[in-house]
Amino acid sequence: MSNASYFKEHSGVHALLITPFNEDKSIDYKTYEEYVEFQASKKPEHLFAVCGSSEMAELNIEERVRLASLAVKHAGDSNILATANIEPSWLAQVEEVKRIEATGVDALVFVTKGYGNDQERMFTYHSELSTFTELPIMLYEYPGFRPHKMTGETYKKLVDTGRFVAIKDTTCTMPEIKKKIDVQGNSSVLQANIPYLLEAYMAGARGVCATPTSCGVSLFVKMWREFSSGDINAAKQTFENVIMLDNAIDSGFNISAKYLLSLQGVPFKPINRGTTVLSPARMQSLKVFYEWTINHAIKL
């Protein structure tokens, strides 16, 4: 889709793309290309290429740019978003914005950079950084840089600039997400917290951007389309399966998601750049869950 189209159609399912690694913890780009195509085949509206779940803070700028570029190349009809302000210094972030934009992504993502205790600085920072791109921008309360939460008032001010089209809310409480929903205007507040996903939709959230979309996006596409069409009962039933998926991968995410993807035929290894490992018991639990989805005709 064109950038203008994304600006108008920034709601729906924003499916995360996690990063496959080799045994030496270098990126397995071949598997990544296959994975992007796998995710795109599920028909989410958007793919989020450089995100917290992709371990973006553990990736250097060259790796992040390459992942964004490959996502654009293999995304099919899905829009691609990528975070563009991970570098530590201001000048490096300006250059990062330009490099990520040059990959051909449809929109950029700006994380809140730990300015949660100074909302005026948060507003000024994002407003000034937005002048270095023509692309639509999604905001992301990224927990990797704390304090990370944005108030509804600050969100409204940023939306009113006309440069910011969505936010990935990670407050994980309904009162706080409602404060942003109340002022979202033409933008989209996206829910990241699975237990409150249906409640957030009912309150006016316009999409989802959450960790389990990395390995079970079909469920989220199904639920969003059911809800959007007004079939609330069907959405509630699908939401129950979403909760089961969330519980299945909760322990040890994102390695759990990688192992679940391997069961689905995408050749991920259960490796990240941290120290988390999957125990045999956790692998067995995920196998049982995956077999349960097959036996009950639940499409992940």
Concise overview:
This protein has 300 residues and is an alpha/beta fold. The chain has one domain: TIM Barrel. It has helices at 3-8, 29-40, 61-74, 90-102, 119-129, 152-160, 174-181, 197-203, 213-228, 232-249, 255-263, 280-295; strands spanning 12-16, 46-50, 79-83, 107-111, 137-140, 164-169, 188-191, 207-208.
Written overview of the protein:
There is one protein chain. The chain has 300 residues and is α/β, with parallel strands linked by helices. The longest helix is centred in the last third of the chain and has 18 residues, at 232-249. It has a single domain (3-227), classed as TIM Barrel (Alpha-Beta Barrel). Strand 7, helix 8 and strand 8 form a beta-alpha-beta unit. It contains twelve helices and eight strands. Mean pLDDT is 95; it is low at 1-8. Strands 1-2-3-4-5-6-7-8 form an eight-stranded parallel β-barrel, surrounded by seven helices.
CATH superfamily name? Aldolase class I
Query: How is the biggest beta sheet arranged?
Result: 8 strands, parallel, barrel
What would you report as the Rg, rounded to the nearest angstrom?
18 Å
Gross CATH architecture:
Alpha-Beta Barrel
Order of SSEs, N→C?
HEHEHEHEHEHEHEHEHHHH
General shape: globular
CATH third-tier fold name = TIM Barrel
Q: Name the poorly predicted regions.
A: 1-8
**What gap, in angstroms, lies between the N and C termini?**
25 Å
Helix/strand structural class: alpha/beta
Helix content: 40-55%
Q: What fraction of the residues are assigned to beta strands by DSSP? A: 5-15%
Give the rounded overall mean pLDDT: 95
Number of distinct helices: 12
CATH class: Alpha Beta
Can you list the strand order of the major beta sheet?
A: 1-2-3-4-5-6-7-8
How many domains comprise the coordinates? 1
